[in-house]
Structure formats: structure tokens, C-alpha cells
Amino acid sequence: MAIKVLKPTTPTRRHTILVDRSELTKKKPEKRLVSKLQKHGGRNFSGKLTVRHKGGAVKRMYREIDFKRLKRNIPATVEAVEYDPNRSAFIALLKYADGVRAYILSPDGLKVGMEVQTGEEAPITPGNSLPLKKIPQGLFVHAVEMWPGKGALLGRSAGTGIQVMGGDKGYVQLRLPSGEMRLVKEECYATIGNVSNPDHKNVKLGKAGRARRKGVKPTVRGVAMSYKHPHGAGQGKSGRHGTGGPAKDPWGNKVGTRTRKHRKVTSKFIIRRRPSKHKFKKYKTLI
Fold first, then answer.
1. Residue 81 CB neighbours (<10 A)
2. What is the DSSP letter of 273?
């Protein structure tokens, strides 16, 4: 997919960059594979606002994605590659040899009419799902399970690719896009290739109205608020740095710190953590 730059006839169009979706299949979603999606506008069961900057999105139906790839050793043909409003990646509609249809995350390069398969003996081609122990070292995969049979949890956003670094003693080492190195059981399934829509990172909405229709409400900076926010009031930006201390949220809690539990059971599977933002910025300056 290519990106689409509009003619600069207005200030909005001058800065708008969108993904060209002309190659996608223009059809309504499969009726049996959609369900109603209830919006809550960032409020909990009692009506209190628990997530800020949410609300007012355009109505949409949820496409049920087969993250477990349950139909094993049955070839399937790609009937359509569609846009999904609920995720950044595109989705592909499969029709299996026994007539069953299912949605999967579309890998980059998948076209209508191609054949995909799930199983230990599936070929090493984009879209096929295999156990990690059957995937050669160095290949990029997506939609990776963290526990056998639980369904894909890693590598699901647009353009994402996870590199297989090799395995030993029942585990396979993966390098995630964040730079983290992690061990995953070799029985876990993964799909060959990168996720579709790699140009999603280049999108610029251009105007507040387009973000509003996606359900994103306006965000006000803390320094522009009154004394009721830790960053507000005072002469200058006294709430974010200097005598005001580190950055805080509206309730006075520090932000930007990692919240992972120190004694989490799965920490033993992480070989190397992702680099911190401070180290990453320092590394970029050296380059």
C-alpha cells in the first residue's frame, strides 16, 4: 500500500497524509463474522469517567478475528483483503476447503486468490501459521502466541515484525520490535511475515475532526490548566521540572515510570528488556 498526499488547497489538506486503500476489496464485512461493539466513552459501570479523552466515535461493527487459527492442515483461499476500523492492520477473509470462513490479520503482500494453511507441515510462506520450532532462524513473524493454544498476543499492529533468533531446551528466542528479547515455548504458533499496512506510521490526520470521529476527544495540556493540576498555575512551567518536580498526572502521580511488577512470574522469560527512552535518545545522538 502507498500513502496518499492531498493537494494543498486548504491548510488541512496541506498537512494530511493518508493510506491509499484503493487496492483493498470493497465489500461489506462477512455477516456471520461481525458482532455489535458497545462504546462506553471512557466511563465505567457507574458512569464515572475513568479514561480521559474518549467519546463520540462513529458507530462500527467488530470483526471477529481468528487469532487461534483453529482450522489445522486445511488449505484456505483468500477471498478478500479488507479494512478494519477497529485496528491499524488490514484483515483477510479466508474460505477453507470445507466451506468455513474466518478473518485473520493480513500479512504484508497477501493478495486475493492466494492460498494459506495452518499446521506443522505448512510451507514457509507469508500468511501460513506454524509452531515456532518449525520456523527457520532469522525469519520475521507476527501474531505470535505467548502460551500454546491461547491465541496470538504478540505482533498484531500494522507493520510489526518479530524476528526468530533460534531455540533451545523447548524455548525459542524472539526479538520484539521494542528491542526486548524474550523466550516463548516452541509449541506456540506464529504466522510468517510482517503485518500489513506498514505505512500506518506515516499517517497524519490533518484536522481535529478526523480524530474526533475516531473517538479521540481534545486533550488539554497540564501547564495550560489552573492550580488544580500539578503542572498548572505559577509563573512559567513550574509544575513539570525544576522546583516543581517530575511530570505528574492530574492526580499527582508520577508518569513515565514503568509499572511492571518486580516479581512477576513471567520475568524469567525476558532475556533483555527494551532500552529506556533516555538511553535510546543518547544512542540516536551518537549515530
1. 20
2. P
**DSSP symbol at 76:** E
User: Can you tell me the distance from the alpha carbon of 210 to that of 110, in angstroms, rounded to the nearest whole number?
Assistant: 29
Residue 35: beta bridge partners?
62
Q: What is the predicted pLDDT for the residue at 108?
A: 94
Our CA angle for 152, 156, 159, nearest 5°, is 145
Superfamily of domain 3-200: Nucleic acid-binding proteins (2.40.50.140)
> All 3 cell numbers of residue 42?
471512557
CB atoms within 10 A of CB 105: 27
C-alpha cell at 246: 517530575
Segments making up each domain of the chain, as ranges: 3-200
What is the side-by-side strand order in the sheet with 171-175?
129-131, 189-192, 140-142, 162-168, 171-175, 181-185, 270-272
Residue among 148, 146, 106, 101 at smallest CA distance from 127: 106
- CA-CA distance, 240 to 201, in Å (whole number)? 29
In this prediction, residue 229 has a pLDDT band, given cuts at 50, 70 and 90, of confident
pTM for the model stands at: 0.87
**Coarse DSSP helix, strand, coil percentages of the chain, rounded to the nearest 5 percent:** 15, 25, 60
